Predict the 3D structure of the following.
Amino acid sequence: MLFIIWMLFLDTNSWLIHRELDQEIQELENNKEYYIKEIIKDQKDIKILKDSSELEKFAREEYFMKKDNEEIYIIEYEDSVPKNEKDD
């Protein structure tokens, strides 16, 4: 009985330590899956951005870049603008 208690709780290779390590391994595997999906998504985006028209579209949408002879108007809807409420 003493041996079982020793092996389950007190030993350096105890069941508790193995359980913690298994949880950490699972968490790392989940992170790995997430990052693999992100890499695949980014590779697709890079492939799309190799086309100059797609690159121009991306620059216009994400960074509000424009040609020299153009004007850009940014339209914000009421529900997307934070409201400034004053405490009176």
User: Anything to note?
Assistant: The two ends are 71 Å apart (CA to CA). The helical segments are 2-10, 15-49, 52-63.
